[in-house]
TrEMBL record:
<keyword id="KW-0808">Transferase</keyword>
<keyword id="KW-0489">Methyltransferase</keyword>
<dbReference type="InterPro" id="IPR041698">
    <property type="entry name" value="Methyltransf_25"/>
</dbReference>
<dbReference type="Pfam" id="PF13649">
    <property type="entry name" value="Methyltransf_25"/>
</dbReference>
<protein>
    <submittedName>
        <fullName>Methyltransferase domain-containing protein</fullName>
    </submittedName>
</protein>
<dbReference type="GO" id="GO:0008168">
    <property type="term" value="F:methyltransferase activity"/>
</dbReference>
<feature type="domain" description="Methyltransferase">
    <location>
        <begin position="45"/>
        <end position="138"/>
    </location>
</feature>
<dbReference type="GO" id="GO:0032259">
    <property type="term" value="P:methylation"/>
</dbReference>
<dbReference type="InterPro" id="IPR029063">
    <property type="entry name" value="SAM-dependent_MTases_sf"/>
</dbReference>
<keyword id="KW-0949">S-adenosyl-L-methionine</keyword>
Length: 199
């Protein structure tokens, strides 16, 4: 998948950036509604941050946020975007299956919009282990993911059972099919928001 994303950014074929605007509105509403369970701003990670729109939203809310992505062009654009927005955010080029060596530990909140659902089965296990390793007890994970399905080069998706099985040691807080204002192409992928808390 990483090679595909690198090529897509180079060619300017990034439909997830366009869809991300609608997802961003949902994210803001979810963060507003979940302030009590997510807790006050602290150290946050945006896994698979792309060009940083959601990282910037967290920074605006007072989080000390780091975004990580495997595509150099996306990370460069994210840094420029944060500078233009006038917010402080750190962007790292790295592999989400090796988070600790890239971003360190001590995170209280992890945001995953479309990262987990695009990984292979083995990568998902490694990623979940790393998310657990870098977070504090009681940390929250908010994940946007497509439902399972074959979509050619697009992410194969996931479901609640796999998320719960893969993130052992985490508790599912909510599983919401929030479809307000999402483009039809995204709706066909059966999108869901999973909110988990680390034990």
């Amino acid at each position: 998948m990483i090679a595909g994303y690198r090529l897509a950014y180079r060619l300017g074929l990034t439909p997830w950036e366009w869809a991300g605007r609608s997802i961003g509105a949902q994210l803001a509403a979810l963060l507003d509604s979940q302030d009590a369970s997510v807790g006050p701003p602290g150290k946050a990670l945006d896994a698979g941050c792309g060009t940083g729109a959601h990282t910037i939203e967290l920074a605006r809310r007072g989080w000390r946020v780091t975004g990580i992505d495997a595509v150099p062009l996306a990370v460069a654009r994210a840094r420029a975007r944060a500078e233009e927005a006038g917010v402080e955010a750190t962007f790292m080029l790295g592999d989400v299956t090796e988070l600790e060596k890239s971003v360190g530990r001590g995170y209280r909140f992890v945001l995953d919009i479309g990262c987990f659902h695009g990984l292979t089965a083995g990568e998902r296990v490694d990623y979940a282990d790393e998310v657990t390793r870098i977070t504090e007890p009681g940390a929250s994970l908010l994940m946007f993911a497509f439902g399972p399905g074959r979509r050619g080069p697009l992410p194969r998706g996931t479901d609640r059972a796999e998320v719960e099985r893969t993130f052992a040691g985490w508790r599912m807080i909510s599983d919401v099919a929030d479809t307000d204002a999402l483009p039809p192409a995204v709706l066909r992928a059966n999108p869901r928001w999973f909110h988990l808390a680390r034990s």
